[in-house]
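Run log, item B.
One chain of 202 residues. Sequence copied directly from the ordering sheet:
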Amino acid sequence: MTEYWVSQGNKWCDFCKIYIANNPLSIRTHELGQRHKDSVAKKLATMRKESSAREKEQKEAARALEQIEAKAQRSYQKDLASFKEAAESSGHSSESSQRSADGAKRLGNCGAGKSAAQEEALKGGAPKRKGPAPGLVISTSLNPTRAIKGAPSSIAVNKRKREDTKTKAVSKEEEAALKAREAARKRMEEREKPLMGLYRSY
């Protein structure tokens, strides 16, 4: 029986950042050595330091968010008070100021709420318009052919092209190609007539 040599390769130690022989004896010897133990202790100390720094950063971020929310709440209350004062000083009735204050409260509580005027309009409390509608009023139909039953469309009567366009100069090769295409289309129609029962008129 023939014996052959097999390379065992090397094992990388993540703590010591070195390669060691990949056999149980070398691995055990390295792990029991002082260098490996010091490297493991150093790695654990850095991991603890990083985790404590991360926790401290998260606490500071939470504290900053709380301060921002408190400032926003104070400015909202200040704005609400000034809004009430302005409504009372302008001579509005107490009912309209109460309604607008309620609308402002709702707007502040729900974030993306509707104003009191919008809610009133939705309930049907918006003032009704009297008189003619603003702007130009068109009395005739926008599509006059729609009222006529069976009126041909612009596609059916080949009115898609503008009448004012000039006929462009066509070369001899292009004219021959157009004639060949038209002849091929007619041959195709003649061939399909008995099969499909269609008699198209152009």
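Observations after the first pass:
- Residues 52-123 form one domain.
- Residues 110-114 have pLDDT under 50 and may be disordered.
Flagged for discussion on Thursday.
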